[in-house]
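User: Before I run my own analysis I want an independent prediction to cross-check against. Here's the chain; please return only the structure tokens and, at the end, one sentence I can use as a sanity check.
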Amino acid sequence: MKKRSSFFKVSAGMLIFAISAPVLFTGCRAPHYNSGAVYDGAKTAENAAPYVSYEPNVNYNTEEYNAIKESSFHAVATSPLSTFAADVDTASYANIRRFINSGELPPADSVRIEEMLNYFRYDYPQPKDGEPFSVSTEISACPWNPDTKLMMIGMQAKKVEESEKKPSNLVFLIDVSGSMDEPDKLPLVKNAFLLLCEELKENDTISIVTYAGYDQVVLEGASGSDSKEIMSAIEDLEAAGSTAGSDGIKTAYKIAKKYFKSDGNNRVILATDGDLNVGITSEGKLTRLIKKEKESGVFLSVLGFGTENIKDNKMEALADNGNGNYSYIDSRFEAKKVLSEELGANFFTVAKDVKFQLEFNPKFIKGYRLIGYENRIMDDEDFKDDTKDGGEVGSGHRVTVLYEIVDTDSPMDIGSDLKYQSSSVTDSNDLLNIAVRYKEPDSETSQELNYPVTTESIKTEMSDNMKFASAIAETGMLLRDSEYKGNSSYESALSLLNSVSDIKDDTSKLEFLLLVDKVSDLDKMANK
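Assistant: Structure tokens:
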């Protein structure tokens, strides 16, 4: 049965769209990027007002990013385990690209190295039969630190074939508040969802929810085959009013649950700049709302849009806690990549609550540092706790992880001297073990796979995969002005990129090379 609002003609099916938008500010000119959503180390502090510094005669900018505290080196003698959740978000890279292409260096806290790494394709081995993913490793000399080695971990998820994909129940939740009335916001949102409409199947169910000063059900329970009516509803959207995002979220989940497909893909897709200013607005309360709603089995993916007013901190928190992923859309090209070319990876989950736990062997390794994934680090005891969230990995997704490791022959001091304790070393020639826990998409009980790493992973020459990943890490550390950047330079990153054999055959990788060249020029100008 299909239902329409009084404004739109509707057809049967199951998909829900929800759109939100920020508020336009006029008058005062100002500030620098706000990284203050974290106060006194608390990521979701709700009562502290974000700090914004103002200067005359600059564009008004109220973008918000959570502060990032980089991981330091840990001694294996005292901290033999490293535990974190998988992450396949890519928003940070697209956002960084937006800054650089506009002639600006991005705010340091907008640079999440893991999202830069995971934006690109790598040549990892396919999973074995019966396993949801493969895990491979490579260890080589570290380009920026002569006293460490660099280890790359590559996870490749299995790809669900088109014939095997389950029908989708999608709710498009679209922010149509006044702040979305910009060329790079609502018009781009419309283009993005129109691209997605081309991928819909007859058995898919589509709904559209919008929110501004209040939420509205524009289209409910339409069949994916009713593309003309769905597209017409999208094209007729207009932006105005404040941003009651929490009400829109509640309504979107309500409709998603109404049309829930027990053997299907149930998901709310939120398109917004993240500026929720009516109802529940704090990151902490929004996170608790999403955690409660996701118990229904409905996943949440977030698409970020716009400039000068995006609330990256809120959008990332919503996706991370909603069993979904977070992408930033800065162009029609990016919309096509996320919603058409990578639709399966972004919306069809093959493993949820994916967690990594590495155990380092002190016989060979005395220290390590995880590069990126700062907001995904977990307590070691959470690894086997099925009530603790991990990350979601979709069809064909890749997860790339880099560690700096300090072997026992390195002159680097890790500061691991103990007065009363010593590490006992078992007789093993493994350098370390990688344990991965995950749940099937429809299960609440985790399974564990283990991948011992031996000296066979040590390479005298970097593979193309590792050259490219190393260049990303160097670039990210330079953009963050990391205290661990060592001898990193844009020239070194460019040299690595130019040595990748297929760099010109991959449009996205070639784009990154050109971006590094551009940011190198920006950096030189900034330091004149």
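Sanity check: Residues 507-526 form the longest helix (20 residues).
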